[in-house]
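Give me the fold.
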Amino acid sequence: MDVADVGFLVLRLNIAAVFLLAAGVHSSPKGWHGLIVDTGILVRGTPLSSPAHVKALAVVALIAMYAGAVSVLVGIEPRVGALLLLPICLGGFITHLRNRDDAMAMGAKINETAPAPLREAIGHLAFTAFIGHFAAALRNIVMASVMIFLFLAGAGNWIVSDGFGRLLFG
């Protein structure tokens, strides 16, 4: 037994768990609404910010999460699965950075009219949201790095197929 293959398997199981859980949550009615909102935040200010485009991008993201996670988990073209998950990670990074900034701006706006005794608590809540979104943004960058690693290095020897990897890397 090759220790590296055990490591790749553990990595693949964790990737699949994260993205299958996320896809499952986003498939629920509340989760779907959240995905639409976050997709809108991701593309705001671009030509893709119309409601129809946002919904279509959310559908594509959900399909990519399911397909990429299953691909990586089962080991059927896991490099392709990693490529499917990479834009999800990068989109999550951007969305969380925007949410981080929005949280501080919203806290400041609420504090303008809040009674003095509540201002410290509101500032603390806004900062907590800021830190939470910053941590989530960093997590997404780490996950993006893992996807790049899987694409370049492959997913170990315990896979079903890697024709795409052999085509690209020999």
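Helices lie at 3-27, 29-43, 51-74, 78-113, 116-153, 163-169.
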